[in-house]
């Protein structure tokens, strides 16, 4: 019995020791295998280019940054939610803001415009009798003239005859005063002064060439005749403008019209005088709506006695917000909104403690400066992405969630030569309109100059950028709108031409390359729309860098698939990817 008890005790101790050693080993083996599986399934991505997904750590093939671990689990998330790593949030400078009813009373509305002549101060200098211009004392437009200055001398057969009549009638002025007075008044109707008439009468000689004097002071804005020309009575000779005051004409978009009224205070700024502001008031709002540009003109009269403003100069107007707090709803910054066709989307942060996001479609209303009113889709207290929105959108596409270009969700990325391109890359976003080959060839010349402009930005050469911008503007003026027979094509080109011209002008007037690149982003957007709509019989690559424009992202066009980034120069030449191929 004692031996049985001893054997039983030894067996129990052995089982316990075996369980301790071998069981622990099995647990470690299981943990090891689980660790190996996790390690095998771990993916690595780039914080700047979340479409990059590799099985091993390394460098981003686009920008060269170190890859970071990607999220491998979406447990507990809703169908349209996705999660970013906190490290990716920090590196991509993704920032969020809480939406709330704006109570700012000093918000301003920014408008872009141009300086134009004050038409109320324009005077047309006309000829009061017919004849031939023997001598012209005005050589070119832009000349300053004074009231009473000799403008030209004219040989006039009818004036020659009228002078002879005066000399003859003067000898009968005592006997036939009515006849004498009639002849004298005839000359007065031709704006011949009493002193000139008296001189003719006293000398008894007829003047062959008669002088014309200016009736106002100002600047010659248009020269309508040349020396040796024959002119008729009442024919315009010069257009003289008084530039002591000028007009600043601003475009007001359809959604903004209700925000403005006559008498509002406005502050004018221009790049010509970066540290100076000009105070004025709204003088006139055009009641006629331009259906082509969807704008109306807002006019401001500016004092220009010091000749600070030149006609054609670009200006910016800042008008105080007159919307009351009750009228003003939810406002969000324009950097938070992504537009695609008629859809406007934002990214909502659904968890206040975790970087979890979801795309939301919203309806926007009127624009107020750099902000837009939200009519539907968001509530006060919602937290949305306001910086790095394109990066978040790329992550959403990568994870198969709803995104700007992928309304229903599902994977949209496919591998391509070291970087990923979207499925949309083989199609265009704008409807292609049928136009003549000649028009396409003219548009292609604009594109070719644009490419030279882009190359100058790549080289960080601000002076060359200005030269190529002017060349681009020159080729743009040669695009013949008359070649467009279709009404829609005609209207579309008018709108795009205005935007392209405005962008190129802005680039040509900037000496700071950072500012040039900012306008280049806008130019690229509108030229892309033009090429998508009309075509240029050449394959064009639309490329994109999410880090450009302070991480808001920017597109540009290229003739080659290889990425050469114009937004950073030598610093980041290869940062970017092909987003679209326009066939």
Annotate the secondary structure layout.
Layout: H1 2-41, E1 44-45, E2 53-54, E3 68-69, E4 81-83, H2 86-91, E5 95-98, E6 108-117, E7 122-126, E8 131-136, E9 144-145, E10 150-155, H3 157-170, H4 177-189, H5 194-203, E11 209-213, E12 218-223, E13 230-231, E14 236-241, E15 245-253, E16 265-269, E17 278-285, E18 295-303, E19 314-320, E20 330-333, E21 338-340, E22 343-349, E23 356-368, E24 371-376, E25 383-387, H6 389-398, E26 413-416, E27 419-422, H7 437-458, H8 462-477, H9 487-508, H10 513-534, E28 540-545, H11 548-551, E29 554-558, E30 577-582
Helix pairs in contact: 3-4, 7-8, 7-10, 8-9, 9-10
Write a structural description.
With 583 residues, this protein is an alpha+beta fold. Helices cover 31% and strands 28% of the residues. The strands form 8 sheets. Strands 4, 20, 21, 22, 23 and 24 form a 6-stranded antiparallel beta sheet that branches. The protein is elongated, with a radius of gyration of 37 Å. Mean pLDDT is 80; it is low at 34-38 and 411-428.
Index terms:
583 residues, alpha+beta, Elongation Factor Tu (Ef-tu), domain 3, OB fold (Dihydrolipoamide Acetyltransferase, E2P), 6-stranded antiparallel β-sheet, 11 helices, 30 strands, 28% strand, elongated
Looking at the structure, the CATH topology of the domain at 437-582 is Four Helix Bundle (Hemerythrin (Met), subunit A)
Low-confidence stretches: 34-38, 411-428
Straight-line distance between termini: 97 Å
* Total DSSP E strands: 30
CATH class membership of the domain at 437-582: Mainly Alpha
Gyration radius (Cα, Å) is 37 Å
Spatial shape: elongated
For the largest beta-sheet, the strand count, sense and barrel status come to: 6 strands, antiparallel
Determine the fraction of residues in helical runs and give it as a percent range. Answer: 25-40%
Structural class: alpha+beta
């Amino acid at each position: 019995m004692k031996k049985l008890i001893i054997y039983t005790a030894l067996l129990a101790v052995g089982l316990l020791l075996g369980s301790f050693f071998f069981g622990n080993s099995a647990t470690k083996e299981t943990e090891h295998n689980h660790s190996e599986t996790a390690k095998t399934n771990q993916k690595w991505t780039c914080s700047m280019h979340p479409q990059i997904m590799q099985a091993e750590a390394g460098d981003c093939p686009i920008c060269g940054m170190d890859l970071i671990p990607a999220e491998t689990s979406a447990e507990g998330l809703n169908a349209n939610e996705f999660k970013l790593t906190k490290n990716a949030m920090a590196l991509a400078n993704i920032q969020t803001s809480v939406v709330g009813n704006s109570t700012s009373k000093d918000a301003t509305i920014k408008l872009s415009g141009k300086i134009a002549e004050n038409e109320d101060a324009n005077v047309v200098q006309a000829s009061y009798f017919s004849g031939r211009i023997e001598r012209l004392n005005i050589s070119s437009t832009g000349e300053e003239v004074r009231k009473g200055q000799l403008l030209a001398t004219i040989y006039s057969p009818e004036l020659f005859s009228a002078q002879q009549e005066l000399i003859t009638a003067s000898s009968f002025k005592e006997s036939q005063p009515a006849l004498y007075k009639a002849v004298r008044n005839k000359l007065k109707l031709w704006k011949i002064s009493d002193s000139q008439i008296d001189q003719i009468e006293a000398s008894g000689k007829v003047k062959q060439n008669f002088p014309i004097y200016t009736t106002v002071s100002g600047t010659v804005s248009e020269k309508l005749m040349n020396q040796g020309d024959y002119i008729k009575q009442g024919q315009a000779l010069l257009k003289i403008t008084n530039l002591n005051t000028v007009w600043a004409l601003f475009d007001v978009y359809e959604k903004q019209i209700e925000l403005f009224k006559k008498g509002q205070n406005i502050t004018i700024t221009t790049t010509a005088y970066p540290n100076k502001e000009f105070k004025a008031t709204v003088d006139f709002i055009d009641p006629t709506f331009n259906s082509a540009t969807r704008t109306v003109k807002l006019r401001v009269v500016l004092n220009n006695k010091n000749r600070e403003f030149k006609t054609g100069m670009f200006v910016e107007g800042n008008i105080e917000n007159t919307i009351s707090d009750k009228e003003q709803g939810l406002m969000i910054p324009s950097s938070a909104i992504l537009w695609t066709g008629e859809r406007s989307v934002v990214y909502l942060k659904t968890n206040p403690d975790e970087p979890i996001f979801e795309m939301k479609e919203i309806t926007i209303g009127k624009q107020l400066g750099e902000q837009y009113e939200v009519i539907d889709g968001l509530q006060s207290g919602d937290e949305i992405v306001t910086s790095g929105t394109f990066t978040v959108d790329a992550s959403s596409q990568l994870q198969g969630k709803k995104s700007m270009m992928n309304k229903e969700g599902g994977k949209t990325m496919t591998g391509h030569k070291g970087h990923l391109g979207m499925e949309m890359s083989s199609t265009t976003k704008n409807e292609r309109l049928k136009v003549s080959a000649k028009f396409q060839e003219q548009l292609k010349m604009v594109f070719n100059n644009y490419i030279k402009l882009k190359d100058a930005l790549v080289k960080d050469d601000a002076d060359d950028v200005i030269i190529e911008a002017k060349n681009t503007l020159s080729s743009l003026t040669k695009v013949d709108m008359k070649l467009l027979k279709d009404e829609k094509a005609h209207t579309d080109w008018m709108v795009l031409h205005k935007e392209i011209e405005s962008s190129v002008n802005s680039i040509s007037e900037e000496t700071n390359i950072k500012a040039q690149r900012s306008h280049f982003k806008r130019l690229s957007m509108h030229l892309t729309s033009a090429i998508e709509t009309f075509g240029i019989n050449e394959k064009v690559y639309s490329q994109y860098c999410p880090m450009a424009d302070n991480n808001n992202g920017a597109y540009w066009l290229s003739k080659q698939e290889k990425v050469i980034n114009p937004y950073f120069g030598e610093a980041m030449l290869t940062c970017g990817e092909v987003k679209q191929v326009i066939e």
